[in-house]
């Protein structure tokens, strides 16, 4: 009798023996199988096959061969299941083979501080990625397209960029800010000698007209001296045209008497993005509505670097990044994808007006211009911080 009782007891005991943890490698393979990430070949199913893996500092990269015929979109679509299944952050790259990098750490909120400033450069910290702080260099890639749903951090990001550029080069940075939300975000900075702010489509058209006139004069000067890129000239000045809410300048969205001003603005922006880079104009174009109507093809085609915050629809990600992904970002303000040659998941540093005024107060004299305090403890390009561009 006792023996009979012992058998179920043993079976129950077996259920409580701790199971060996399943490795990420095995989990990923199961996820490929369970999500049908495969092709059918005869009677067999062929999944991506692990070839090698590499342990890095805080991450592991897995390299898979991919069966011919398994499309990029099929593979990309399994990424959320991998992140959920492993409960870790992961990134994918497809370049003949599949590189899947799984990170031990997660991105979290962080705050801007003036140690991020790199005096004399045009580099700005766009955010922290799994591998450290990423800098965007506006002398290597002059323009930037930014977008995402309302309240996810576009203006905060623009302000972090603006603050860095101004404090990097207070004597040489000039800003033309088209704050199409009635000047509520940037008009407060118009007291600075480096900053001009337009608050509606009429003022925007006037400001852009001024910029285009200057551009034509500069073009002539560059031609006569045989110059083609400001970076190779002794000129230190750079002019930043920042558009916060490009949709308000779209003739396909704006109607009535404003339409012709929007038409002019669009053509000026397209000229700035097309010709401006070489002669020192930098366009940062931001919109809450990433559609064909608000991001004109001619502007987009000339902008290589992109930042997308969460977008409500996958098509928005296509408009901003030329690929899907931003619609699946977690709903966290400041979380974004920064794309130059490849995508980087980032958390943008948080900054507010009070911090900006305080930093500017400490570093600019009463004319708002020359630096009085430079407190940079860190060497440019040191440590993990990097500009992920190879363009020169
Ligand atoms: N990088 C960040 N880190 C932490 N919180 C942030 C960050 N960026 C934005 N937020 C929070 O989200 C709020 C909205 O940000 P922001 O005004 O930049 O959004 P937006 O995308 O410009 O919205 P809208 O399209 O309506 O203008 C901020 O007031 C702040 O509370
Ligand atoms: Mg905004």
Give a verbal description of the structure:
The chain is α/β, with parallel strands linked by helices and 392 residues long. It has 10 helices and 16 strands. The chain has an 8-stranded mixed β-sheet, with helices on both faces. Strands 3-4-6-5 form a 4-stranded antiparallel β-sheet, covered by helices on one side. It has a two-stranded antiparallel ribbon with strand order 1-2. The chain starts with a helix and ends in a 29-residue tail after the last helix. Bound molecules: adenosine-5'-triphosphate and magnesium ion. Adenosine-5'-triphosphate binds next to α5. Keywords: ATP-binding, Nucleotide-binding. This is FtsK domain-containing protein. GO terms for molecular function: ATP binding; DNA binding.
Short description:
31% of the residues lie in helices and 23% in strands. The protein is built from 10 helices and 16 strands.
Number of strands: 16
CATH topology of the largest domain: Rossmann fold
> Tally the helices: what do you get?
10
Cross-sheet strand order for the largest sheet: 11-10-12-13-9-14-15-16
Percent range of helical residues: 25-40%
Approximately what portion of the residues adopt beta-strand conformation?
A: 15-25%
Averaged pLDDT: 89
Q: Which spans have pLDDT < 50 for at least 5 consecutive residues?
A: 372-392
Structural class: alpha/beta
Q: Report the end-to-end length measured between terminal Cα atoms.
A: 83 Å
Ligand species = adenosine-5'-triphosphate, magnesium ion
CATH architecture of the largest domain: 3-Layer(aba) Sandwich
Tell me the major beta sheet.
Answer: 8 strands, mixed
Gross morphology: elongated
Number of domains: 2
Work out the radius of gyration. 25 Å
């Amino acid at each position: 009798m006792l023996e009979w009782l012992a058998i179920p007891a043993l079976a129950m005991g077996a259920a409580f023996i701790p199971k060996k943890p399943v490795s990420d490698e095995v989990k990923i393979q199961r996820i490929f199988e369970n999500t049908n990430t495969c092709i059918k070949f005869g009677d067999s199913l062929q999944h991506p096959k692990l070839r090698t893996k590499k342990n890095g500092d805080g991450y592991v990269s897995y390299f898979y061969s991919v069966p011919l015929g398994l499309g990029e979109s099929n593979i990309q679509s399994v990424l959320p299941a991998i992140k959920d299944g492993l409960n870790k952050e992961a990134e994918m790259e497809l370049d003949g083979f599949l590189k899947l990098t799984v990170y031990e750490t997660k991105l979290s909120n962080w705050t801007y501080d003036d140690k991020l400033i790199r005096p004399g450069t045009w580099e700005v910290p766009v955010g922290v990625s799994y591998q450290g702080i990423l800098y965007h260099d506006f002398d290597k890639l002059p323009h930037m397209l930014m977008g995402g749903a309302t309240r996810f951090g576009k203006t905060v990001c623009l302000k972090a960029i603006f603050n860095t550029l101004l404090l990097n080069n207070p004597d040489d940075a000039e800003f033309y800010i088209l704050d199409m939300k009635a000047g509520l975000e940037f008009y407060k900075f118009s007291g600075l000698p480096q900053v001009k702010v337009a608050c509606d489509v009429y003022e925007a058209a006037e400001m852009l007209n001024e910029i285009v006139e200057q551009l034509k004069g500069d073009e002539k000067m560059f031609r006569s001296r045989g110059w083609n890129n400001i970076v190779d000239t002794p000129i230190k000045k750079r002019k930043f045209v920042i558009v916060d809410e490009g949709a308000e300048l779209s003739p396909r969205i704006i109607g009535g008497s404003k339409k012709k001003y929007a038409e002019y603005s669009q053509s000026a922006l397209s000229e700035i993005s097309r010709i401006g880079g070489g002669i020192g104009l930098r366009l940062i174009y931001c919109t809450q509505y990433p559609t064909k109507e608000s991001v004109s093809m001619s502007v987009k085609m000339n902008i290589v670097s992109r930042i997308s915050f969460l977008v409500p629809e996958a098509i928005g990600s296509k408009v901003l990044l030329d690929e899907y992904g931003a619609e699946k970002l977690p709903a966290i303000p400041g979380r974004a994808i920064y794309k130059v040659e490849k995508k980087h998941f980032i958390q943008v540093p948080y900054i507010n007006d009070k911090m900006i005024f305080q930093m500017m107060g400490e570093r600019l004299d009463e004319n708002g211009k020359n630096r009085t305090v430079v407190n940079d403890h860190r060497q440019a390009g040191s440590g993990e911080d990097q500009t992920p561009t190879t363009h020169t």
